[in-house]
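Contributing new complexes? Match this layout with BES.
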Amino acid sequence: MHLNTDPMRHFGRTSSSATAVHLLTKSQFSKNAPDLSKADLAWAKSTGFSGSKGQTCLVPGDNGKLAKVLFGIGSGNDFGDPMLHAKLARTLPAGKYRLAEGDHREANPLIDQLAWAMGGYSFDRYRDRKHKTPALCGKTNADARRMAEGVFFTRDLINTPASDMGPEALEAAFRQLAKSHAARVRVIKGDNLLKQNFPMVHAVGRASSQAPRVLDMSWGKPSHPKITLVGKGVTFDTGGLNIKPGSSMALMKKDMGGAANVMGLAHMIMDAKLPVRLRVIVGAVENAISGNAFRPGDILQTRKGMTVEIGNTDAEGRLVLGDCLALGDEQKPDLMIDMATLTGAARVAMGPEVSPFYTHDDDFAHALDAASNEIHDPVWRLPLWQPYQSMLGSKVADVNHISIGGFGGSITAALFLSRFVEHAKSWAHFDIYGWVPSEKLWAPVGGEAQAIRALYTMLKARTSR
Ligand code: BES
Ligand code: ZN
Ligand code: ZN
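Output block (do not edit by hand):
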């Protein structure tokens, strides 16, 4: 299994022969960027280079060989612009490069390297890819390396098609992650889920040929602050008996994106040996269709105790998460974070790039906002709007898992989840998309890590105070 595409292939040792890459704003370029000779400038202008966002200009030396690279960063002021050069990692010819310092910009090894690795990523498990990639030379920054590893791991997990990433394979990847950091793993699966009181995980996953399961990892000193990560690991979402139309089902291999993201984040935390007691819980199920599938109108028992009326079998993620959150909550963690590709509504509200999150904890929200800006990983807080709790009313059970009318779909899903969290000192829920639908400078089309660079940055700052 070739999970964890290695980001180190995009890095090289410090080298005096590395080609300089100049990152230039439009205005820097128009003011005759000081490092450029007249001939360089003439070349750049005559090839149409202006410094606009994402533009690349290969500049030859006297011998006709590549001498330097100009890369346009537009105004250089927008969110994430310091990551723009990421694109170079998949467009430059193979060779050694360094980012030029000087009049134009300050070096930031963390961002420079992380962006380069993220942009260079490609998912090659199912094809031969022998060509070499351009390498960014210099002393490797440890956080850039471990964040890139986490991001690559997450992307690989999401990109792997459901035929090779069912509940069993997700469990294998979970065990592999645990093993590489000497973490302990417990797995509860199949009918054991009923015996050990995970009725909703079982109900959602029982129609699949691969048994549903709860994956549970623990790592770190028990005396450290308890941080629990919970991920939606729906390895494929057909919608169940409320079957999705083809166009909506096409991308549903990514419905384990929450699990993939918390696993990528767990890698970063454990690799950095942050002083926390980490727990990772993943509900790994396939929302399949069979004679024993759960149905609209069914009433499910829950780990937490209340009963849930099923309004639509396509709203399966919140059921799986409900039992997993209840499990995490029993340990009274200091902080519980869940991530899930939970609703289409979140996408309608935020588009594919910005991850909405929900929390009652203002300090968490502010700290995350700061980290998000620092590491260029966009998140945005949405409200746990209590009056909408009434939309989850049911006439036959304690609660309905969907709202009538579908208003505020991401909010009502978050409110449903909040009912399973009682003892955690702080809780945050991320309704992520987990996918890049059209190529970005820092990512090819495919699975994406979202919010975990910001979360890692925040947790590292908090725990090293
Ligand atoms: N996995 C989907 C949500 C989803 C769809 C995320 C597309 C990202 C892109 C989830 O299980 C789902 O189908 N949710 C339904 C809920 C509805 C039936 C209340 C939705 O959002 O339409
Ligand atoms: Zn669904
Ligand atoms: Zn789903």
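Reviewers usually confirm one structural detail per submission. For this one: The mean pLDDT is 95.
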